[in-house]
């Protein structure tokens, strides 16, 4: 910033900042305050075992409880966090919330599913961010698993971080599988235990033979590599049935439940044997 004398005194400004940049800066400031002020909320969506409809695990999905704008979805702020070094504090807040939620479920019902947390590439390839989240993940490895997108499999730092996590006993899934750049060589060498097939291949599975062919071959490859397969974005019983027929063992989607506040999932763990 440069300070410049005006008639009214000294004003601090930077003449290189245009309106969108100023907007971005204020958005970053607002997000930083929101994280520090506890405005982030974590919702949970079940992953269901297709054979019996039981809850296998849940995915933690962050939301921003904004005082004026209501519940803001992650698509509207996670990228900004990744670009502004706020992703570290954001992720720590999500990890703490997830660990606390697991303990609350456990206390209430005597049983609680594992919680999968989304970890951005930035948290793995930036040493400072990684150091902070690594300890949390290792401490909570009996409770949490990690989801990374294929982009995290490509860079050396991130691959090293994933290998390190695996050595520490932290389980890892590849999220949005099929939409990124993962090559088969990466899969062969990486310590991941699960592939989550992206919604793009699942959405129209019941009417698209080509999507069925893709899912079938992913299942075959995954079994050969001893990987678990999850289908994302299941919205109907027809699609669930097709997935079952193709040998997919678990799935996630609005058909069973949208992401909801943790307390709302309690009945599914306490007694109720299945969602459907
Ligand atoms: P993702 O990890 O692939 O999460 C799945 C997204 O699909 C979620 O969107 C979920 O609500 C949505 N979804 C689940 N089932 C269905 C369905 O049947 N139909 C449709 N149309 N959508 C379904 P959400 O919660 O808006 O999250 C979007 C993305 O934001 C996530 O994609 C993830 O990449 C990112 N994200 C969410 N929480 C976090 C977080 O704590 N940290 C980081 N780094 N990223 C996060
Ligand atoms: Mg995910
Ligand atoms: Mg996904
Ligand atoms: Mg996604």
TrEMBL record:
Domain EAL span(s) in chain numbering: 24-273
Protein name: Diguanylate cyclase (GGDEF)-like protein
UniProt organism field: Motilibacter rhizosphaerae
């Amino acid at each position: 910033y440069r300070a410049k004398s005006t008639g009214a005194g000294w004003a601090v400004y930077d003449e290189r900042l245009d309106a969108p940049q100023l907007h971005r800066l204020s958005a970053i400031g607002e997000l930083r305050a929101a994280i520090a002020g506890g405005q982030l909320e974590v919702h949970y969506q079940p992953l269901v075992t297709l054979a019996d409809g039981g809850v296998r695990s849940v995915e933690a999905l962050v939301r921003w409880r904004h005082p004026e704008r209501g519940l803001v979805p992650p698509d509207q702020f996670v990228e900004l966090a990744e670009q502004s070094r706020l992703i570290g504090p954001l992720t720590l807040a999500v990890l703490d919330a997830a660990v606390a939620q697991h303990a609350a479920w456990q206390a209430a019902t005597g049983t609680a599913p594992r919680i999968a947390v989304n970890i951005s590439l930035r948290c793995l390839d930036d040493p400072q961010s990684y150091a902070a989240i690594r300890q949390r993940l290792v401490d909570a490895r009996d409770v949490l698993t990690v989801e990374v997108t294929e982009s995290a499999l490509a860079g050396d730092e991130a691959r090293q971080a994933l290998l390190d996590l695996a050595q520490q006993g932290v389980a890892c899934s590849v999220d949005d599988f099929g939409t990124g750049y993962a090559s088969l060589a990466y899969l062969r060498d990486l310590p991941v235990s699960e592939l989550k097939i992206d919604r793009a291949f699942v959405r129209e599975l019941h009417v698209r033979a080509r999507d069925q062919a893709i899912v079938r071959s992913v299942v075959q490859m995954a079994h050969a590599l001893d990987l678990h397969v999850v289908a994302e974005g299941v919205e109907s019983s027809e699609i669930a049935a097709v997935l079952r027929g193709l040998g997919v063992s678990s799935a996630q989607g609005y058909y069973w439940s949208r992401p909801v506040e943790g307390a709302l999932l309690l009945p599914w763990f306490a007694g109720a044997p299945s969602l459907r």
